Amino acid sequence: MSFFKRLFNKTKGNEEMSKVKLAVIFYSLGGINYQMAKWAKEGAEAAGAEVRLLKVEELAPKEVVEANGAWKATVEATADVPVATSDDIEWADSIIFSTPTRFGGMAAQMKQFIDKQGGLWAGGKTINKVVSGMSSAQNQGGGQEATILSLYTSMMHWGAIIVPTGYTDPSIFTAGGNPYGTSVTVGQDGKMVEDVEGAVKHQAERTVSVAKSIINN
Q1: Helices and strands, counts by H and E, the chain
Q2: Which residues of the chain have pLDDT under 50?
Q3: Running DSSP on this structure, what letter comes out for residue 192?
Q4: CA 94 to CA 16: how far, in whole Å?
Q5: Under a CB-based contact definition with an 8 Å cutoff, are residues 3 and 32 in contact?
Q6: Most buried in the list 16, 48, 69, 84, measured by CB within 10 Å?
Q7: φ/ψ bin of 121: left (φ > 0), alpha (ψ from -120 to 50), beta (otherwise)
Q8: Listed residue (8, 43, 4, 1) closest to 24, CA to CA
Q9: DSSP letter assigned to residue 186
Q10: Residue 113: phi, psi to the nearest 5?
């Protein structure tokens, strides 16, 4: 078989491959993880995935949220974003979670959502989901890595396939060098300290690539 014929057959086969279904699920108080989730969606769609951008349910009392200007603004900005459900987990081939750090672990809102998936787990429907995590904190030593690791611990129980960023792209170093997943420091002004857009999009593309190789195997 000629080189060009082999190339044609390979291209044709790729076109017939199943499209990866990715759920980007976030919790955000000040808007940082919402922005990261949107970048992840862009990166995944550029890689050919079908993407659902989803938030987890807010647990804080309404009066507490409304007393915090940034928090209230984020709730309003994400009002039209659907709340993630178990159906979204079952639908997805792959999932990217994005959550701020809370004392070295994921936010309670994200933890509750994961804890509510016991039925899916018992039915074996979380097995081989391809997952990756992102986080944020108010200082570089504020638990960014530990937060992602706390998420990955739950994913091990799910039987999921964890995709860290590693040092697989120069953007990882620009973003601060976290090999577990993209994380960002949030300054006193509420803005990102590091430039993480490239790292987030790379992480999304990498997650989609791994999922694609699994579902089309």
Answers
A1: 10, 7
A2: 1-15
A3: B
A4: 19
A5: no
A6: 84
A7: alpha
A8: 43
A9: B
A10: -60, -45
Cα 195 to Cα 15: distance, rounded to the nearest angstrom = 34
What integer pLDDT is reported at residue 178 of this predicted model? 92
Residues whose CB is less than 8 angstroms from the CB of residue 170 and which lie 6 or more positions away in sequence, other chains included: none
| pLDDT value at residue 16 | 57
Give the C-alpha distances (Å, rounded to integers) separating 104 from 17, 65, 78, 95, 148: 40, 22, 25, 21, 9
Q: Is 214 exposed, middle or buried (0-12, 13-18, 19+ CB in 10 A)?
A: middle
Token pair belonging to 137: 């904190």
- Single pTM value for the model: 0.90
Give the model confidence (pLDDT) of 138-160 as tens digits: 888 888 999 999 999 999 999 99
d(CA 195, CA 20) in angstroms, rounded, equals: 27
d(CA 205, CA 210): 9
β-strands 130-137, 94-102: how paired?
Answer: parallel
**Cα(137)–Cα(140) distance, integer angstroms:** 7
Cα–Cα distance for residue pair 92/177, rounded to 1 Å: 28
Between CA 64 and CA 61 the distance in angstroms is 5
Q: Which residues contact 93 (CB under 8 A, 6 or more apart)?
A: 20, 21, 22, 129, 130, 211, 214, 215
pLDDT score of 216: 86
Question: Does residue 151 contact residue 33 with C-beta atoms inside 8 Å?
Answer: no
What number of CA atoms fall less than 13 Å from residue 195's CA on the CB side?
Answer: 5
